[in-house]
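Form 7-S
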Amino acid sequence: MSEPVLQTHLGDLPCRRGKVRDVYDLGDRLLLVSTDRISAFDWVLPTAIPDKGRVLTQIRAFWFQLLDTPNHVISLDLAHMGLPAGTDPGLLEGRTMLVRKCEVVPIECVVRGYLEGSAWKEYCETGHACGIRLPSGLRQGDKLEQPIFTPATKEETGHDINISFERMAEIVGADTARELRDRSIDIYCQGAEFARERGILVADTKFEWGQVGGELILIDEVMTPDSSRFWPAQLYQPGGAQPSFDKQFVRDWLGTTGWDKNSPPPALPDDVVTKTRAKYIEAFERLTGKPFQWK
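Output:
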C-alpha cells in the first residue's frame, strides 16, 4: 500500500519533509501535513498506514481544543489556509493544520506516569529513571506515585538523548525550564485522567513547546499514539510489557523478520497494515467518543 506524494500538490511552497510529516512555510505561518508514512527504529517504512495522518491530526486537534493551555493552532479548515491554486483538497482534507510560526524550544518535554521504555531500562541498572531516584522493588509497567519529568534533547537524526533537568536549565534558562516542567506535568495529568476515564492509560508522552512574543505555547504532537504510549486500561497488568495502541505492533512484527535495522526495512504485510490502522482508529474513537469516518 503506497501513499500519495503530497508535497507535489502545493506548488513551489518551501517544504521540509520529515519522517512522517511535511511542513510548508507560509511566511509567518506553517502548514503541517500529516502523511500516512510510518517510522520505526529511525527508518521510514516502505509501506504506509491508510488514514494514519488523518487520525493523528484529529487527535491533536481534539487535545488542543480540550486542554487548558495556549497553543499554535490557527485553523483546520482548508478554505482558510491560502493554499496555492490547483491544490487537490482531497489529499489534504483532515490531515492538514495551519499553525503559528514560533521559535521552537530545543527540548522534548517527556512526562512519565508509568515505568517503561528507557526509564525502565535505566531503573533496572541503577535504580534511577532518567537520573531520578525511584523506590526499590518496582516492576516493569508499574504506575509511579507521581509523574516524573524527564527532558531530552531534540535530535535531527537518531534517538533523542535523555538529559538531566539541570542540563535542560543550562540550555533554556532556569525560569523557562521550571515553567516547561510544571506545565508539561500539569497537561499530562489533565490528559491522562481524561484518557483513563475512556479506557486508555497514557504511560508516558512527550510535549513540544514554542515561544511567540515571549509566551510559551504548546505545539506539534499532543498525546497521540505516535508521541505517547497508550495502553488499554482493561488489559493493564504490571510486571511486563503491555499491549498498546501505538506502533509497537509494527515494531514487534519487524522483530520477527530478521531485519538488522541497518539496512532498508521490509514492506509490511497487509494484515499488519490493517491491524495497525485499526489500533490508531480505536485510540481516536475511545478518546473522542466519535466514530472515525472519512470519505
